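Now for a typical sample entry:
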Amino acid sequence: MRVFNKLNAGPARMRVLGQGCTESGVLRRHISLRCGNTWWPRRPSKPMRCPGCKSPYWDRPRKLIQKALSSVVASVSPEKLHSSLSREMARAFRTGQPETVGMADRSLAKALEVLKEMKASGRTWHEMAERVEREFGTKLDKEQLKALVR
């Protein structure tokens, strides 16, 4: 019997083509739940390990991540989460009143007023620069101060 005729015979043809056989005989792509690797197995039986991460538990999700997520979700109340996110977003986008209530006026107009007041009282350029840096968070040299005071 020739090789072609042997392949046309029942068992080999059913295994390769998946015709007329059970689900276990058909090759299906596998996905590792540990590393996300996808592969086609060589045999229709369940693979022993993932070829990517070599884990024998490739078909089971990690329990550590599930436990961590469930404990975090259980420990944080929705009200706390909402208020915290609202506060952080307000701070990031500079909106909302709670952050601006306790802060001093740091506008350019206020800085010019302070500088003119200090110049009128006879303070040195060094003292003016120190106060501007301390109160407004901006470091200016002597020439920049002179340009602002004029």
The chain has three domains: 1-60, 63-101, 108-149.
